[in-house]
TrEMBL record:
SUPFAM superfamilies with a match to the protein in the record: lambda repressor-like DNA-binding domains, Periplasmic binding protein-like I
Signal peptide annotation: none
Gene3D superfamilies named among the record's database cross-references: 3.40.50.2300, lambda repressor-like DNA-binding domains
Keywords: DNA-binding, Transcription, Transcription regulation
Protein name: LacI family DNA-binding transcriptional regulator
CDD domains: HTH_LacI (cd01392), PBP1_LacI_sugar_binding-like (cd06267)
Source organism phylogeny: Bacteria, Bacillati, Actinomycetota, Actinomycetes, Micromonosporales
UniProt-listed PROSITE patterns: HTH_LACI_2
Record organism: Dactylosporangium cerinum
A Pfam cross-reference name: Peripla_BP_1
UniProt GO MF annotations: DNA binding
Domain of life: Bacteria
Length: 327
């Protein structure tokens, strides 16, 4: 690997000039050109660790999300990475599995490694951002908010739940259940409150057991759907408040011998391709990639010195009725 001295020798300048060029200090246009040409020929990469020590922060952003296997968070991560790379930052991706202890461990690493900032989907309402905030590191909460005075970008989840449930009623279903995520998580609460609001407004009977909490994953959706089908008065449709639980619900329906066109389904998020069915279903498209780009842009503004009061940006989901989902 080439050194700063080799670049200086080839460019015909001093090592101090090379250092000034790569640290963004004032250098004549001609010397800057010579240094960059020499660096390119020698495949020289500036020492980012040394730059971090001088500037007290790195050019690395941390992204903490619950589950990279979930297509929603995969798209969100891509949005963050695209925006970060455009600004010259690299991304470190951490899976928390919605585990507060694991989340805290990663936050401690962010602090100790002096990363430039962090974007996270909090594992719980009790997320501990004390160390990060005290160090002055910028934080943006994504998908879920925190009790700390930090920026946030989220989806209007209650409106998404309302839209999904309304579409099922308009398709002719009346006994509409809801498979929601774990109790106590902001997205869970907002989405099932949207479902409950519509059911109450339609003055339909809300049978015991029609709200099922699950773990946001396929096995959780499968178990919840089995519980719904076992009720004395089973539903004729269900709102699944994330995509992976919808996959599990479809598996349970298939195992019970219920044809997809005999049961209504609304999905918040996009089904994985392998789970797509030729039967129409309601899909609420969540702007995951836009969510990620927006969060990254907000974080970069803070890294750049933006000192305005904390902001919360709310994005809207798009409801596609059943007839638009047939393949």
């Amino acid at each position: 690997m080439a050194t700063i001295y080799e670049v200086a020798a080839l460019a015909g300048v001093s090592p101090a000039t090379v250092s000034r060029v790569f640290n963004g200090q004032t250098v004549s246009a001609e010397k800057k050109r010579l240094v960059h040409e020499a660096a390119t020929k020698l495949a020289f990469t500036p020492n980012r660790t040394a730059r971090r020590l001088r500037g007290q922060s790195s050019e690395i952003i941390a992204l903490l999300i619950p589950d990279i296997e979930n297509p929603f968070f995969t798209a969100l991560a891509r949005g963050v990475e695209d925006c970060a790379r455009e600004a010259g930052y690299s991304l470190v991706l951490c899976n928390t599995d919605d585990d507060p202890a694991k989340e805290l461990h990663y936050l401690e690493i962010v602090a100790s490694e002096q990363m430039a900032g962090v974007i996270l989907a909090p594992a719980s309402d009790e997320v501990d951002l004390g160390a990060i905030v005290s160090l002055g590191r910028p934080v943006v909460a994504v998908d879920r908010t925190t009790p700390y005075p930090v920026d946030a970008v989220k989806i209007d989840n209650r409106a998404a739940g309302i839209g999904a449930t309304t579409a099922l009623f308009e398709a002719g279903y009346r006994r509409i259940a809801c498979i929601a995520g774990p109790a106590g998580i902001e997205t869970t609460e907002d989405r099932f409150l949207g479902w409950r609001q519509v059911v109450a407004a339609r003055k339909t009977v809300l049978h015991d057991g029609y709200l099922q909490h699950a773990n946001f994953r396929v096995d959780g959706g499968r178990a919840a759907m089995r519980a719904l089908l076992a009720l004395d008065t089973p539903p004729d449709a269900v709102v699944t408040t994330n995509n992976l639980m919808a996959v599990g619900a479809l598996q349970a329906l298939a195992a019970a011998g219920i044809a997809p066109d005999a049961f209504g389904l609304a999905v918040l998020g996009e089904l994985p391709f392998m789970a797509l069915t030729p039967t129409p279903f309601v899909q609420v498209r969540l702007p995951a990639r836009h969510l990620g780009r927006t969060a990254a842009a907000m974080l970069l503004e803070r890294i750049g010195g933006d000192a305005q009061p904390p902001r919360t940006v709310v994005l809207r989901a798009e409801v596609n009725p059943p007839e638009e989902q047939a393949l």
